[in-house]
Amino acid sequence: MVRHSVFFWLDKSLSDEQKASFEDGLRALFEIDCVSNGSFGKAADTPERPVTQNTFDYALVLEFDSVEQHNEYQVHADHGVFVDSFKQWFDEVRVYDTQF
Predict the structure, then answer these.
(1) For 23-65, how does the pLDDT look when each residue is reduced to its tens digit (9 = 90+)?
(2) Coil vs helix vs strand at 90
(3) Based on the number of CB atoms within 10 Å of its own CB, is 51 exposed (0-12), middle (13-18) or buried (19 or more)?
(4) Helix 67-75 vs helix 77-86: angle between axes, to the nearest 10 degrees?
(5) First to last CA, the chain
(6) Least crowded by CB within 10 Å, which of 16, 67, 71, 99?
(7) What gap in Å lies between CA 44 and CA 51, rounded to an integer?
């Protein structure tokens, strides 16, 4: 299994409507056939500690049954639509892929 964790820092000037549109775009990624599971959320309001990093706006977690399915997702047209639709709103994006 591969867990694809993506952390987004968004443009601070986005409206609530734009954020809702972004969330709809995240949800649409769950429907891509090679994605076995998906979820997203916002940074938790946990106490600050030296090892935590919670300045991101959204975290997306997608799971794939194999590296091949992950790679298929990366070139899938719907993934491209998401990136093209929202990349102008990204201040920063970090990706962490983990294999289990």
Answers:
(1) 999 999 999 999 999 999 999 999 999 999 999 999 999 999 9
(2) strand
(3) exposed
(4) 60
(5) 5
(6) 16
(7) 14
CA distances to 25, 27, 48, 51, 89 from 4, in Å: 16, 15, 25, 21, 20
Tokens of 9: 């820092």
And the tokens for 86?
């929202």
| pTM above threshold 0.90 | yes
- Among residues 70, 82, 72, which one has the least CA distance to residue 37? 70
Q: Are 52 and 46 in contact (CB under 8 A)?
A: yes
**Mind listing the pLDDT tens digit for each residue in 55-71?**
999 999 999 999 999 99
* Distance from C-alpha of 8 to C-alpha of 89, rounded to nearest angstrom: 10
23 in helix, strand or coil?
Answer: helix
Counted residue by residue, the chain has a size of: 100
CA dist., res. 63 & res. 30, Å (int): 9
